[in-house]
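Let's do one together. I've listed all components of the complex below, 858 residues spread over six lines.
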Amino acid sequence: MKPIYITRRETFNAAHKLRRDDWSEEKNQKVFGKCSNQNWHGHNFELFVTVKGIPNKDTGFVLNLKKLGDIIKETVIEKIDHKNINLDVDFMKDKMSSTENLAIGIWEELEGYIGDEGGELVKIKLVETQNNFVEYFGGKEPF
Amino acid sequence: MKPIYITRRETFNAAHKLRRDDWSEEKNQKVFGKCSNQNWHGHNFELFVTVKGIPNKDTGFVLNLKKLGDIIKETVIEKIDHKNINLDVDFMKDKMSSTENLAIGIWEELEGYIGDEGGELVKIKLVETQNNFVEYFGGKEPF
Amino acid sequence: MKPIYITRRETFNAAHKLRRDDWSEEKNQKVFGKCSNQNWHGHNFELFVTVKGIPNKDTGFVLNLKKLGDIIKETVIEKIDHKNINLDVDFMKDKMSSTENLAIGIWEELEGYIGDEGGELVKIKLVETQNNFVEYFGGKEPF
Amino acid sequence: MKPIYITRRETFNAAHKLRRDDWSEEKNQKVFGKCSNQNWHGHNFELFVTVKGIPNKDTGFVLNLKKLGDIIKETVIEKIDHKNINLDVDFMKDKMSSTENLAIGIWEELEGYIGDEGGELVKIKLVETQNNFVEYFGGKEPF
Amino acid sequence: MKPIYITRRETFNAAHKLRRDDWSEEKNQKVFGKCSNQNWHGHNFELFVTVKGIPNKDTGFVLNLKKLGDIIKETVIEKIDHKNINLDVDFMKDKMSSTENLAIGIWEELEGYIGDEGGELVKIKLVETQNNFVEYFGGKEPF
Amino acid sequence: MKPIYITRRETFNAAHKLRRDDWSEEKNQKVFGKCSNQNWHGHNFELFVTVKGIPNKDTGFVLNLKKLGDIIKETVIEKIDHKNINLDVDFMKDKMSSTENLAIGIWEELEGYIGDEGGELVKIKLVETQNNFVEYFGGKEPF
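Okay, and this is what the predicted structure of the assembly comes out as:
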């Protein structure tokens, strides 16, 4: 019985802004800098979803990575790709669209769908730019 | 006298959409697909600017690549980074914000500034996603 | 009238070997080294297809890159992805499956389909490993 | 006493298929999709091997990374590079050649050789494509 | 209360050598190989700094990644970029400039500055080449 | 007769500085910035060598890419890898070690060795950092 971790990468392109309308322009600038631009900006996001499980004896798979890709596409990518995170994405409504909150939101969307296919969702990595990414383990703290 | 080509990479993140208001929703969908989303989407763009010239005897430089980076930042990146290409960028006003048109627009912004520092602007490469990029040689057709 | 170059990347995974049955094992080893392994080996290939044209006034596109991707998938990727280049790919029958020959074969498959959509096929780049790639300009020699 | 983790990357190119001869063509297609192609397909694999240890006072090394590279090459890469995983690789005989099973097989090959040089084998990461990878911690579950 | 991990990447270019003057040329060659070259060699280093924390309710940030970048630049990059690690970097004086020791040194430089801005420094990843990197968790052993 | 272009990538790590001893510290700083650091800095260089030719009928090769790699290693990499470009590399003596001059120097080292094996050396690309690279076509100006 050898638990192993499999990861699927999917990508999406989206617009967003980091801006609070209940704050002054000055405070938005100070806290969010150019990310607060009123007219939005955007990114090519890379999403890595990690599932832990025991390889099936017949297939050698924890979970077919193509199937994992399909689940991610259906539950997340179709809702967010070529969309505006602040305006178009139901699971981000009334939240700041920081990479942190987006990763947590994606986890919550995916969570219910992974168990059905075998394996356990254990990590989301969300890359916003080559310099910035976040990792979320469902609230666990491995380090 | 050995002409050589030097390239500087700079990056920017921006929102845009590909959509014509003088077209129906159906036609926009048919031609531009999900890129026509009313509420915008966005990308991490990579811009590569190539200058041709003869290395200076004293420095070995065609043009100091840091200086080339500064020119690109001042003439292009500051106008477009964390902006909306359709709404915020003066040199893209009244143009479709395709990667093709954006590359040509960037060439025209840069063109007047390169000669002053030595070397000749010969190529713009603009990468929109890992799967899509354009190259522009100022209208020349090397191949 | 500003000709510009657009490139679409698609990927495929395939098996092949470089081996001549009309040569001795020793000669195969000497010329092809470990690439001559009787039982095949394989690669993740990256294919870059470049089309030259004038951006359309209404769309800003030389050719919709998604459409270009669809053409590449239909005429090339479906025939070669998760296949054996030597055994399964009709356009490589009776040819050595070198990266050179594969790039030329892909050009010939694509060639007839690009003109219909606007633009002219001008370059194929085929990346076999991070250390090895070939570029083919349809027999032209830009440099 | 500061434990630290060092990682060495090596690469190999190999052919394989995911197919059970005791299953019908239909079932193979349903479960393994195009990975079940009778005539094989292949990949450029990236292998990352992580060793944990305390830096040596004289050298600053947990383990010389070049030496770690040599161990990986001798015990793994030479057996699998430019080979057919299903037919040519002794440690994968009678196993499904899934990325999961391959990572576990590589761990078992390497395991006995790391301790001799200092440090403890703690992780294998095996990247099959840009979208798919697995990580194995020897059966441990850090998260 | 959902702890999440954010990572910032910064880069620097530096010279160093791995060589002990209290050892013979032969022993230096044997242990350090070409890294012992008397006249130095160098690398483009990539530094990834990971901070753990709870996203702030108002901003969605654990810590503004731009601010994290500024802290890294001020406390580490300015001391080491375009420098000689053995000769110019105060926090590496009298230490072997192995990637291991450099990562630990960087951790110790950064450690005192992260808490002030929120979040807890939990990991340093230092990439020396595409084949070699180290990870340091402040002495903790997550796996 | 279909000329095609093949490219081999090799890497090296080296130290250098951009500094003229016949200039004041101030002038060195002004022209070369932090690259003028007296005690050197360094890079991971990537070298791409492109050869043009007709695929051989028997092999499908313009030139065996492994053989091209061996030529590059013997004539260039062994002289420069883990070396100081200013002090240790014969073909860079009495030249400024700019990326431009280094690319031209590498071309001149390689030039005599490519013809013997078939094909014609047509391009050197030398990548110094992710943001800076040069391309040299032996003095030709394809664009």
